Amino acid sequence: LEEALRQAQKMEAVGQLTGGIAHDFNNVLTIVAGNLELLEMRLNDRPDVKRLASAASMATSRAERLTQQLLAFSRKQQLQPEPLDLNAVVIGIRDLLRKTVGERIEIDFRPGTALWQCLVDRNQVESMLLNLILNARDAMPDGGRIVIETANAQPKPSQVLGLPADLDSCVLLTVTDSGTGMPQEVLDRVFEPFFTTKPQGRGTGLGLSMIYGFVRQSGGHILIESTEGAGTRVLIYLPRAMVKIIPGAAAAHRQVSPGR
Ligand code: ADP
Question: Which residues does the UniProt record annotate as the domain Histidine kinase (predicted)?
Fold first, then answer.
């Protein structure tokens, strides 16, 4: 618990710091990007110079993506949870995920049947999946297989280490890869903001800390199992969307409607 508290405090401090920097930096980038665009338009008769401006433009876009990521990381309070069918979410971005990992990696989706809806922010779930898939891809330089599974889960706190007692019914999402796995020293630090083992320019070290923040804020739980040389499995327990009790009205409760 102490460890979780320290982690949360660290996340908050880093979140505030990065949020401030990312915001100001993003404003500067917007000006740079806008001017580059104008410059490119005026250079149609100078293809050699235009190429230089385009290269600068592309680098600016990359920087903008990074600041967006940083902003998303620090902007934690703006979640918009809605009842979601996780299977539909995965199917909705399956093509994007496949394109992202390339041809040497197979993505196998095993949807759970009669899956409960879960109560989470759609954008965050999509970005979480994308981040998990990117990590799996990076762990499999020679190709391999990623299995995405969903299932209804009723974990017992005693069965799943560290799982809070209030999470007695939830939807479980697992992403398993056949990649390099991680040694214990890495596994111990994966949720730390800015912790990365990837070469400079490739990893930000924000993926898993962002996911951790989102899952915990949604009232869910995340576990990672990893074996060096064999692969990694990320288990994410998301809260089930179900009966809502309206305070004050004794017998008034309503079922969150299926579908959307
Ligand atoms: P980044 O991907 O930018 O490094 P993350 O927070 O997503 O940041 O991940 C932190 C580190 O955790 C990675 O650098 C990598 O060492 C390790 N890691 C995460 N996912 C996996 C995975 N599926 N297989 C092996 N190592 C992983």
Answer: 20-242
**Residues in contact with 55: Cβ distance below 8 Å, sequence separation at least 6, in sequence order:** none
Tokens of 30: 């917007």
Helices (H) and strands (E) in the chain, counts: 6, 9
**Residues paired with residue 119 on neighbouring β-strands, in sequence order:** 83
Residue 219 in contact with residue 165, Cβ under 8 Å?
no
pLDDT at residue 255 is higher than 50:
no
How much distance in Å is there from the Cα of 24 to the middle of ligand 1?
Answer: 28
* CA dist., res. 183 & res. 226, Å (int): 8
Q: Where are the alpha helices (DSSP H) in 78-206?
A: 86-101, 122-138, 184-187
ipTM over 0.90: yes
52-80 confidence digits (pLDDT tens): 999 999 999 888 888 877 777 676 556 78
**Contact predicate 220/236, CB 8 Å:** yes
